[in-house]
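JOB MANIFEST
job_type = single_chain_structure
chain_count = 1
residues = 619
[input]
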Amino acid sequence: MLFEARGRIVGVWLAIAAVTALFAVAVRAEPGIAEPPAAAADDDSPPAPLESGDDEPEAPPAEEPTPAESPAEPPAEPPVDNAKPDDDDAPPEQPAEAAPNKADDAQPESAAPTAEEDAPADAPAKLPEVDRAEPTPINPQQSAENDRGAKGEAGFLGVRPGHTTRQALHDKWGAAKQTDKIPGGVRETFQLQDFDKVRVTILEDVVDSLAVQLEKPVAQTTMAEKLDLDQLEPVDVLNDQGRLVGQSYPERGVMFGFVQKSKPPQVFQVVVEPVDAQPFMDRAQARLETRFADCVADLKRAIELAPDATRPRWLHAELTLRAGDLEQALQSAERIVEKEPNDFEYRLTLAKVLAASGDYAQAVKHASAVAERGKPTEVVSARAHCQWGDYLAAGEAHNYEQAIKHHLHAIKLAEPLVASPVYAVRRAAKELMVDAHLAVAYDIGWGRWQQKSGAIAKWVERATVFVDDLVAQERATRDVQLRVHERALASLAGVARPSDGAKWVQGATTLGKQMYDDATDAAYKSQLAWRLGVAMNDAVEVEATRQKLDSALELGKLGLDYFDAGEQASKQLPARDYLRGRLCYRLGAVFAIQKSEHERAIAWFDQAVPLLEHPVPTF
């Protein structure tokens, strides 16, 4: 009996090993997210090689980075003197063709990376063509709360900007106390019983807007109840510096102006305008991270109000990409790039969708075109280099040496922007720094370097400093914290002798469970579950390699539970079956090789085989 079991193990194991050899590296398809740039980075050259080394963590630097009060003083660049190619240190499943290209070392340090295409060195990069695509229908799968706003068409005290005529206004409110002429119309001032002063702008004999000036500030909650807005969800209005200056109620066209630095918010002014697409788009973007159904409802309303607007389509592409609906995401992304071919941000969204679909070659073309053509903003250029590096690392060739050059160049471009007084620029730069630092950690983990574990820890810790700053200063959510744990585990999973990843395992399991339990949106919950399943997959690899077998088995079963819960979000992902099969195979290997429990190993191998029968799509 034992002989038969062992024979069956050998047969199944060899079959799976053959599949694994073909597809082992294809799993790493999702770009990571990282943080602040290093002040000491004077160039974007890859890490300097060492004469010798191993995978044991290096001693920590003399001064560990601390969150800077001012973004102008980011932590020092982590030394990456752990970067000499070393075949012995490469992960077991690393293909030979992923070895660094020594010829690339000749590249001048000051030169930015260039596209790997057969084009003259001085030729401008061209934006790739995109296929035409029909507009994507937006159909929310469940009732969203802002549907209740239909009653808001009643306007303010019976007056609807954009609809109510001047005569109808006078019939409702009586004669104006004061009338002033303005270009194209008049501005009339009324004194109503509940409000000290209401100024009405009238253009072409139709009410255009209302401005209500309050004699004394009123609490936001009190004013919302007074105007029958308390059942609607507002969206915060920020100034250029990122400070809260008001709130907008999209369904009513109402905006509150807040007294500066008042806590809780005090309203000093109320502005009412015709219902417009912009507030719906702003709220959709605020809901994009965790509330997919409500985001869809806002986008649907925005498109109804502005059928030709491009931004709702862009947000729709971002949303459906997160939800795992790659077909709709691709249609929307191609549609907006067709309409706005020179918008660099839209091009990068299309590149993300293509990469998620497994088409890394086309993703590289779009990202490199943005990085090399024209004059995109420095944030967009940095993002283009970061994505470019992500796709080189995840693509079929797994060119980690070229990838790290682009990731370091992204850090160099974004570093000066973390101190920008403009909120949108500052936050985008900090998020880019998180992405790029974590991406460097991943390049090191899966590339052919020495002393990888110590370097990974340093780059992840630098990213964590920026994450803490984003949460404390820039209104970021727990999602950015979870990304650090995800990417740290993904990086360590590529190390043959990884350091202790207990804090990243604990962070992913604890924070991940909290976020999963708190999630109320079904589509977001499915997407989060899939991410956590992938993180547990990496955690199993780390723990099993470190001979923490009981922990590996426990994490593996948790990962499979998360994969089951993420079924809806993963249906269209190319590596879906491969990731599940790889996890089952790894659990079987733990039982077969490390625990000598062969019958239990066979049960896991039997689950793995059908999932690994078909190769991961490549382009």
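[summary]
Residues 479 and 585 are 30 Å apart (CA to CA).
The chain is about 50% helix and 10% strand.
exit_status = 0
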